[in-house]
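Aim 2 progress. For Probable GTP-binding protein EngB, the working sequence is reproduced below.
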Amino acid sequence: MSLFDSARFQISAAKLSGLPTELEPEIAFAGRSNAGKSTTINVLTRQTRLAFASKTPGRTQLVNFFELSRKIDGGRNRVVVGRLVDLPGYGFAKANEAVRSSWSDLVGGYIAGRRQLRGLVIVMDSRRPFMPTDEWLIEFMKQRPEVKMLWLLNKCDQIKTQERRTTLRAVEKRAAEFGDRVTVQFFSGLKREGVDELAKTLETWLNPATTAMPPTPAAAKQ
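Predicted structure tokens for this construct:
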């Protein structure tokens, strides 16, 4: 059984003041509303309705937390060892300025100041990586150099082999600007491609659980 099979919904937060106070490490997922972020989380955790996607891009402006746990005491009890965090999708074609501002404040505030954040998975459509909002997020992450990133090229089943090679070369070239803090991989929720690779990467971010938390940035506000 994978650690991610244990994922259970904990809480939703609409403001930074509503974020959980526990100190277990967190892995956040971000991406455009149509990039398949919710499907990625559901496939990873093998739960069909753990993460929900709004039918209207940009509508859901909540940060959702899912606890990860392991059995202890011979299986009689469980202990929380980390969390998956589903950040609001950035799909602004039908969103007004107030919604856009709310998204940037909430997501930007979480990323900038959340000391529990160990890694960020940026889910991108492999047919159209590095859209403007993806670029904003990638640039924003420069202020958290201690946080790992995974650029997940989703929906790879929809591109041909040669296009995969071309896309991978371009994305890896960009990732090289960040050194070894960025991992790149293809993924397909529909075909279940890349699931084990994704799980392995995320487990290395969470373990060992005794690793010291990174310091909170001086300018961060929660």
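The domain at 3-210 is CATH 3.40.50.300 (Rossmann fold). This observation will guide construct design in the next reporting period.
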